Amino acid sequence: GGPRPQPGQEVSVKVLGALEDGGLVERDPRLTFVPGHGDVVQALELGVPTMQPGEVSFFLAAFPYGYGRPGSRRCVRREPDVPPEAPLLFEVTLLEVRDGPDPQPLPPAARLRLGAQRRERGNFHFARGDFAAALHSYRLALRALDGPAAAPPGPQEGEELREQRVKCLNNCAAAELKLERTDEALASCEAALSISPNNGRALLRQGQLLAQQGRDAEATLVLRRALELDPASKVIHTELSRLAKRRSPPASA
């Protein structure tokens, strides 16, 4: 009984997930999440909002809505690995629905944990080829890292926050590139470089994106800067060679 979860509300569920042979791969007596934040598999993201409090549902999930084409290897051996392309059966009990928590000032350590958790979730989506979901998770990670602070970070925590932001922005650029959002990917690279001007990954990707847009002179300058930081990089040498050939006039017959 009671209304179904609405967008932005937080839910708590009891969940069991099993393979076709009956092996349990998910077991959580109280899993709490906000549907739409990308923190759980899509079977739960899509299924739980159709439920009412107290309801018990079974969701048979094809592999794109579970752990995707690659499956999942477990670090903790209490449960088996999820094989590639494995369908899953979830038994879900909706325990509670409540309004989503207002963003609260968090200590730096909590912001780092939340940001890392959401970035890892983005990496999971990226590995299974769901680049839109990956981008959503990376942006949620940035929101956690940039959220209100309960106290100013110390020097070490401040450096860790900056490093995590740069990683998330680089990941955003990678997902945006897969989605063919070139301008957004370039903006993510520029944001990463505003934090860490000598970040090699951001410089390389920025140079590649500028070259894609035909801005060869700018791309060459950026890639040369990247090469100064990593003189042995074959990728940078290849990009610069390609640009040089494109810019040089063809030899006359």
From TrEMBL:
| Catalysed conversion reaction | [protein]-peptidylproline (omega=180) = [protein]-peptidylproline (omega=0)
Q: Which PANTHER family match?
A: PEPTIDYLPROLYL ISOMERASE
Question: What is the name attached to this protein's record?
Answer: peptidylprolyl isomerase
In terms of Gene3D superfamilies, this protein maps to: 3.10.50.40, Tetratricopeptide repeat domain
Q: Which SMART domains match?
A: TPR
Q: Please state the gene responsible for encoding this protein.
A: Fkbp8_0
The molecular function terms in GO held by this entry are:
peptidyl-prolyl cis-trans isomerase activity; protein folding chaperone
Per UniProt, the keywords (alphabetical) are: Isomerase, Repeat, Rotamase, TPR repeat
Domain PPIase FKBP-type, residue spans: 8-98
Query: Which species expresses this protein natively?
Result: Cepphus grylle (Black guillemot)
* The keyword Metal-binding belongs to this UniProt entry's keyword annotation: no
Q: What is its EC number?
A: 5.2.1.8
UniProt GO cellular component terms:
cytosol; endomembrane system; membrane; mitochondrial envelope
- Kindly list the biological process annotations in GO that this record carries: negative regulation of apoptotic process
Outline the TPR repeats, range by range: 200-233
